[in-house]
Design goal:
single chain; alpha+beta; five-stranded mixed beta sheet; four-stranded mixed beta sheet; 26 helices; 11% strand; globular
Length: 671
Amino acid sequence: MPNSLINETSPYLLQHAHNPVNWQAWSTEAFEQARAENKLVIVSIGYSACHWCHVMEHESFEDEEVARLMNKNYICIKVDREERPDIDQFFMDAAQLMIGRGGWPLNAIALPDGRPLYAGTYFPKISWMGLLGEISVGYKRQPEKYLEYAAKLVAGIKGLSIVQTPISEQPFKVDDLDEAYSIFSGQLDHTNGGRGRAPKFPMPDNWFFMLRYYYRTKNENVLKHTLLTLDKMAMGGIYDQIGGGFSRYATDAAWKIPHFEKMLYDNAQLISLYSEAYTITKNAFYQKIVYETIDFVKRELSSPEGGFYGAIDADSEGVEGKYYVWTSNEFDAVIGNDNLSMIREYFGIDNEALWEHGNNILLITQPIESIAQKYHLDIHVCTNIIDNARKKLFEARSKRIRPGTDDKILLSWNALMIKGLLDAYLALDAPEFLDLARQNLSFIRTKMIKGNTLFHSYKNNSSKIPGFLEDYALYIRALLAYYQATFDEEALMEARDLADFVIQNFRDEASGFFWFTSIDSTELAARKIETSDNVISSPNSIMATNLFILGKLLYDEKYMDLSKSMLNAMVPNITAQSAYFSNWAILLSWFCGPFYEVVFTGDRGIENLRAVSKYFIPNKVVSGSIIAASKLDPIQNKIVPGKSLIYVCENYSCLKPVALVDEAVRFLTEA
């Protein structure tokens, strides 16, 4: 018989609906039951694409003996970390404090009031049963000891969100950017790209910062390493060489062996990153990666309603990566005899691509130009041969049992995808990507927003979880990007109104930063202020950049002052740990200047914007209007009937307007 999770919509919770464990979803009623029965609570957290979550389910949660122990002594709660990132953060902080590390599955034991006593990650069956027995007996014998420990642990969790704000604001210095880069550069892998050793995550923020630091300094080593990283990722096994799209991370230093789950948030950000790299290099390979990744998202993560699903599982048929790997015989049978040796060499079959159990993870061993030269082929002929091989492999793979899709739609991740599509539209001058972004924006406005209240998750025509700071921050950023791509003032006003809502409902007056949950949230014993940038920028750094952009677009110093105050508190972190404060470092570069406001007016306003956007000029915001009816005073003052003009301004002081794109670009780049 199914447990109560059968009534949930989360794919991860539904995966556990037929476990013999009496799982419940997180709810007030579950904790009321725990208090009434004086039972401790197991809070088990994971997500649908998590391989080790599946392993622990099979070993423990599907096991009758383990289930009896859990059901007898505990109230058992399952949490989808993607659906409830606030709960995940709370217990992850507990794990970090207790055992010095975190990960998923995340398994915690808590008091009946929800305060944690223990938190860890994956447990083999015997270890899990031993831990449950030990804590259950100990709590019955010495409850006061456990109550005291829980109080200390919660105090520690609260301490993690204390932001040390300086007594007075200090001027921002370019020297701080240099120091941030110096610290970061010492961590780089100059052979395989990226940072540090295995496992390796793409960490887009690191490379966004590096590209901007290169733009400022023209230090060729900065660009060289960033492009090395992008090349190695796109040629490695972490990138799906057949179907497009990136896996979540690589388990090795060379980007060969992926953890095969594919997440929307990674691919959205990497679309932005490779689009930016294309504007610098005009490298057709980066353009190809952008198109293929967007095609992957359209094909495999698109809902009929216009939203984007969250993830694709690592496992199929209970085996990690089975859908994606090839034995030598399988590969040869699909390709046939024509050009087989060249195609095998290109993808590294039985050589660089060989993994385990005779399986190959397809990767690119060398640029297409090199393989063409080696086999004395015209580059276009060689490209067609490889493309045809990919098509054959894709068709053959499509007949396999596909990994499952987590088909819930998360507002924050969809906002990242809107930003990625807009970046690709402008960098590659591809209007179809703007259409896709507009479609997704319409879906969010229709299905996931009510007034100024955003909803975090959508499935089965239901949005029931109020938005978190990450939803507001990323959606505001998407709206600001949409305005700057279209001059749709409705989007700018929506961004402004939501920013005001966040300031009113999420801001901690003591620190000037924003809580992850709204100020009236009481579900957890401690609330979180998240400041460090990780696989996604921290919602506070995103809000700080949003406020900066709003201030520049609206000529409103109120927003600029809030942004400046937040950044001032983060400068010591930027200079000491730049790898985890890269988005903050980008904001620091903006405040250090020069930073431009560019205004486009007249009939050719959008056309001129698209032309300027083909250049990498990251230290600017853009606004404009192709009609005289703009609601924005800064734009109204610049509209000249019958003329299409470009204004380049710095700190709201503008140079003489120009009509030619080349002149505007010269103004923007000569500093």
